[in-house]
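Following the same procedure, sequence and fold were stored together, as reproduced here.

>
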Amino acid sequence: MKFLVRLKPLTPFFFGTDKTFSDETLHDVESSYFPQQTHILGMIRKYILQTNNLLTLRDRGRWVKNSRFKEAFELVGGYDKNNQSQTDESFGAINSISPIFIISTKDKHIKDYHFVAPFDVGLDIEINKSQSIYYVAGKKRDKIYNIKNYNPKKGLVNALTTSKFWDDYINNNKDILESNLLSFDDVFKEVKQVGIKRDKQTKSVKEDDEGSFYQKTSYTFVNDEYEFAFILDLKEDILPQKDGFVYLGAERSFFSIKIEEFNDEDILPKTHISGNKFVALSDVEVENFEDIEFMINQNYIPHAYMIRSNKKQKRASAKNSKSTQRCYIPKGSVLFLKDNKTLKFNNIGYNQIKEIK
C-alpha cells in the first residue's frame, strides 16, 4: 500500500549539515533546504510506534518495552538483538520511502510536485569518442566530455522543477526549460537568529569571550502553498492515525503530518538503473567512482549514518558525539556511467536516479 506523507512546517526549520556550533570556530551556520533521508526514516518509524501505542515514556525519552519489542520490530524493523549475525537493517512493514520532494497546493488540493533541477540545465555537453586512450587521474578513458557554454560567474542552475519540466528536459527543448523552473527564493524564506554562545556547564558568557556571538539561518516556506512530501510504501496499513505532529531533524523542527492513500504513479520521474546518462532525484552514494565517466555536480554533502556493534546500535562518534559521516553526491547531479555499470538501489530514498536516453 502506498501513502503520500505531507509535512507542513509549523515553525522555521533547521536541517543540519557538517557545520555546527559544536565546532567552536564557527559562528555562522545555515540549514540545508531538505532533511536527510535518514531523518525522514527515523521520523516515520517513531510516528508509527507512537500511533500504535508502542512507546513508553521514561526518564530519558520514549522507549519500547522489552515485552513489546517483537511487535515493534514487525512494524518498523530495527536491529534484531536476538540475531547477532544480522548486519542489514530490517524496516519491518516499511517497504520503502521515496526521496523527499516539495508539493504546491491550491485550496488544499495538490497543484504540482517539485524536485531539484538537474545541474546541466542550460549547458551543452559534447561527447566525443577519443581516437586514442588517455588518462584522467591515472585512469584510462576513451571518451571526451566537453561542456561548451559553462559560465563560472553564473555557476550551475540552482532551482526546482515543475511537472512540465521533465518532458522538455528529456526531449532537449532548451528554449523553454527555464520557464518550467522555480528558484529556491520563490519557495524558501530565510529566518535568521542571532545570539550569544554560553558555556554548556555554567550557562554563562565570559566577559573576554569575543567569539561568543553567533548567527543561525533557518528556513521556512514563503507561504502556506508549499509542503514537504514523500511516498511511503507499506506492506499493510499500520497507521491507525493519519494526522498528527512530528519533530524532524537533530534540531527537532516541528511539523504537522498528514498521511493519505496514494495511487498516482507518475509524480516521481521513473528510476532506472541502466543506460549511460542519469539524473539524481535523491542524494547518491557511490561505492566505486571508477564507474563514473563524467559528472556534473555541486559540492559533496556529508550525511550521518549508524554503525553496529554486536547486539546493540551505537553512533560512531567523534568528540562532539555526532554520528560518523559519509559523503554523498547531491540531488540534481548528472552522472555519466560506464557501459553496463549501475548504482546500488536503496529503499530509504537514496540512490534514486532517472535514466536519460
About this structure: Helices lie at 37-51, 69-76, 165-170, 174-177, 184-187. The chain has a mean pLDDT of 77. The two ends are 31 Å apart (CA to CA). The chain is about 10% helix and 35% strand.
